[in-house]
Amino acid sequence: MSLTTLKILMILITFIGAFLVWQGKTFRIYGDQLGYEPIQPINFSHKLHAGDNQISCLFCHSSADKSKVAGVPPASTCMNCHSKVLPDSPEIQKITTAIADNKPIEWVKVNDLPDLVAFNHSRHVTSGISCQTCHGAVETMERLSQQTAFTMGDCVSCHRTHREVTLDETGKPQIARENTAQKLMASTDCSVCHH
Amino acid sequence: MKDKLWKQYIDEDDRGLPVLQNGNGISRRTFLEAIGYTTAAIALTSCATPEQKVIPYLKQPPELTPGVANWYASTCGGCSAACGMLVKVRDGRPIKVEGNPEHPISKGALCPVAHSLVFSLYDAERLQQPLIGGKTAAWNDVDAQIVQKLAALKSSGGKVRFLSNTIVSPSSRATIKKFLSQFKDAKHVVYEPVSTSGIRLAHLRTHGVEALPFYNFDKAKVVVSFGADFLGTWISPAAFIRGYSEGRNVNERKQDMLRHVQFESRLSLTGANADKRVKVSPAEEADALLFLAKLVGGSSQSANFSGFEPKSLAEPTMAAIKRCAAELTNAKGSSLVVCGSNDVDKQQIVNFINQSLENYGKTISISSTASEGQSRDEDIQTLFQEVKDGSVAALFILDANPAYDHFAGAEFLAALSKVPLKVSLSPTLDETTSAADYVCPTHHTLESWDDAEAVGGVVSTVQPTIAPLFQTRAYQESLMRWSGDERRYYDALRAEWQARYFGGQSTFKTFDDLWDRSLHDGVFRPAVAQAGPPAFKADGLSETGARMTAGSSGEGLSIALYPKVTLRDGRFANNPWLHEIPDPITKTTWDNYACLSPNAAAKAGVVEGQFVRIQKGNISAELPVMIQPGQADDCVVVAVGYGRTKAGKVGTGLGTNAFPFVEFANGSFHYDSKGASLTATSNFTSFAKTQTENSAEGRPLIKEYSLKEFVAGHLHEESEKQVDLWKPHDFPEHKWGMVIDLNSCVGCNACVLSCQAENNIPVVGKDEVHRRREMHWMRIDRYFDEKPDGTTTRFQPMTCEHCDNASCETVCPVLATVHSSEGLNMQVYNRCVGTRYCANNCPFKVRRFNWFLYPHEDPVANLALNPDVTVRSRGVMEKCTFCVQRIEEGKIRARNEGRPIKDGEIQTACQQSCPANAISFGDLKDLESKVSTLRHTKRNYILLEELNLRPGLTYLGKVNNDGEDLEG
């Protein structure tokens, strides 16, 4: 093989490789994960569950209003319905097998923040911020993809515009702009997220 | 194919080495092109953030919410004090222990050792499976072989001995008893290397009860201690500090305080906190005690000692004892005399003094079910003899490590080969366990079920907070297997409780209620018949007095041994947290040394860091000299717990073992004795100290006043109003502040370790501490001052003061340290480029720089990290954050519930675990909060106020109780 052939072959391999990686949506540059849509071990459709069947987000991500993490549902939550609904589907069989083998399902994390950021779901959910504000129209997605870049700019721009959150009579915070006596600040202090 | 392509351009020379072909189409340029292209292509294809996995449970435990901590009440297994603790469990792993405020004895106090439990849990050097003859084995094989050998023993009737440290659990003791009852000649030997058996035996003589009493420091008005380091290491320091600081607390409403006089030879943590400290050498202690006994004895009982004349005591010491006697007599029934010696005779005199002062039943309570410090020194001596005779057929060892911490350990180890069956149940492969035939490692405290009754009538529970990390088995379960009981220890424990406690109570209808409630609270208080203290027996007191007067002979220096506040007797020597905490008095890390007073060092012609050979009889040790102000001149003082030979990669080979200097006499171990001599050598070392300047140089860093001045209100001057160069900050919602009460703080270091555990602070090692690169966010400054009547010692906890006019913030070129809207001085790790300007400009020197990327490669050790706190990288400055992760957690909890934050709801790690309750934290904008109130008290002052830093941390001045004006 001559050197020219080798060169052509290498360029070809690169292009084919790049195309495949781009097609699989796993190609990302550090820090920019917008649109990241990895292939999951189970072909779970948010569109079907949250969109067509109108299942509330908190039904599965049950700790989103209690904890810093929203929580990925345990396999037993899936089987609450799927022991009756489509138990023979090959995708559901994967869950059944996982439970039988005592081997947890390893989902690929889509929305990931670096370890130096402490984000708390419960504070945002209980203040009435909808899940879609950050996660996009999840109810339309067959396969989940990242809809916000989750850069510090994204967080801070929202914290700046929602600086003044007022409390209603019961003490429950609501997003409003009028001047009331008690205000809650969406803080822009560094240590709120970085500690 | 590759081979061919390669060969096309490469030739081999006559030595068979590859050389580039000439003129075959590949030029230097082409070569570089190809290399450059492939490099770029490879780099580009690897441009993907690593894939992260998220793995949910298959079936989530109902009590668990991911990301939210669960707290479980348990009991500390660090020593026999058995303090109540709460274990923070995040996603199934314990990451922090804190004091259990509802525990009636420790009342939320914990010592540094308790905080270090988390580290020792994740120590991969713990034994991970059973061993037979040093080789890993399966539990089934171990059980089969041991049961077979035991069956032979049962018929032959050979001696079976069970050697352990104090076991505070009544249920475990029952299990051991049941196991031993299978054999004809069996005995449980309890051994403590730092023993308090003298006190137990003395109470056997005077009260007929062989138990340690509990000392209620909070009920005492006058405390006189003869060398008892009750704030540092003696019996139950965390609980004692709590009581002591309650007694010493003064404010506008409570204007009387406990008075504390300490007679001691070495400068202990307790002595450092005393109102009056009198230096007496170990040899003078007996005379001092007898003299006090004579003075307080009263006419009816003092007949025993009225003839006693203290010959060895100097005039000032006698005057001090006379004054003490007067003060104690004035406070009859609310005074307390304690003695740190393990000499039965001395303790008997102490009991007599306390009896004369009517303290029993008031400041001292005796219970026969108390099981603290249970050892009996005579028993281990007997066991040694039996082992040497070769008459022991089987020896079971649990935790006890006499091969290291007994003075005849080497001899014992050699004689062990005569024991045909040696089974160790210890969790680590220590000096003694290494010699065992079978090693059956038990669980860590945080993995165990158990109970504990350290103080009579208070039964604490121990519950596991994680499934066993390794293939270990509870020692109780091992013993049950070998006695044919196939139950789990959990079931046995419940059965034991049902039999012991359920019947005698009426609060709970079912046993499950009782059990669940006890586990929830961490403590159960069985009904105890209220009875006065047992009658005092004065038998043999005169003989004891005569023995003590005769016994104080001997020439040469005294050598006194002591356990360090952190390392204690050395059983946790493989825990680097405990090594890196500086000793509260010497401020030295990672080492032990021979402490000499300045006079003694001058007399011996040695300087600090010079090695001396201490010779006593045929025992000698070489240790570097530490010059210790405040120490008696005729003694050399050495810490035990060092010089381990098989502790693990951290603890092995650190310092020198001082246990060989222990002596056994009159039925107990003696930790001080005469007859030592010093020889200077020409070797030198340098200590890794965190504070090298001893004196405050007369600066008013610690404001202090006498109790009279405090009551009269003559405190420090009001400072002048200062002008700010900057605009004041606006704090719209909160302004966090901290107040540290220097009158309560005893300098015990629990806060430092609690902070380390909470904030993922790395251990840097001796070398780096020596270079002043320690990473502790919190430190306790210690100042010695030479006053006419001796050395005074003062402690001052120092951490980031969160100044409003922060000098660090103005010099940071990258805005990595800025002020928050809540008054916090924030450090933003990702902005920091490591100029260290801030640290240089900080007047309090509380900032720490990461010189290295401290490795986190051990996957087991990493489980101890707090997931709420960033693990800092190399080149980044860090410092106290006022536990901002806890502030945020508290804020979020309150806001989610739609309510304001309650005062005291947010506690910093240092505050929560302070045994003395010296630290208060809260919102200064809340005028009702405790910090706000304390800030407006008379004792509040600002450190380095002249710099106008407006710190968020202020101090409350120290009050000294000079005692009442007594005639003369």
Summed up, what is this model?
The complex is a heterodimer of chains A (195) and B (968). By secondary structure, chain A is mainly alpha-helical. Chain A has helices at 3-23, 46-52, 57-60, 75-82, 90-101, 121-126, 131-135, 152-161, 190-193; strands at residues 107-108, 164-167, 173-175, 183-185.
**Major sheet description of chain A:** 3 strands, antiparallel
| Spatial shape of chain A | flat
Global mean pLDDT of chain B: 88
* Number of strand segments of chain A: 4
Radius of gyration of chain B: 31 Å
Shape of chain B: globular
Average pLDDT rating of chain A: 82
Number of strands of chain B: 44
| Helix coverage percent of chain A | 25-40%
Helix and strand sequence of chain A: HHHHHEHHHEEEH
Explain the overall architecture.
- The complex is a heterodimer of chains A (195) and B (968).
- Chain A has nine helices and four strands, in the order αααααβαααβββα.
- Helix content of chain A is 39%, strand content 6%.
- With 195 residues, chain A is mainly alpha-helical.
- A three-stranded antiparallel beta sheet of chain A has the order 3-2-4, with no helix packed on it.
- In chain B, the strands form 14 sheets. In chain B, strands 8-7-19-18-17-9-10 form a seven-stranded mixed beta sheet, sandwiched between helices. A six-stranded mixed β-barrel of chain B has the order 23-28-25-27-26-31. A four-stranded parallel beta sheet of chain B has the order 14-13-12-15.
- In chain B, 52% of the residues are buried.
- In chain B, 28% of the residues lie in helices and 20% in strands.
- With 968 residues, chain B is an alpha/beta fold.
- In chain B, α10 crosses α12, α10 (285-296) packs parallel to α13 and α13 (344-356) crosses α20 (541-551).
- Chain B contains 30 helices and 44 strands.
- Chains A and B meet through α1, α4, β1, α6 and β4 of A and α2, β3 and α28 of B.
- β1 of chain A pairs antiparallel with β3 of chain B, so a sheet runs across the interface.
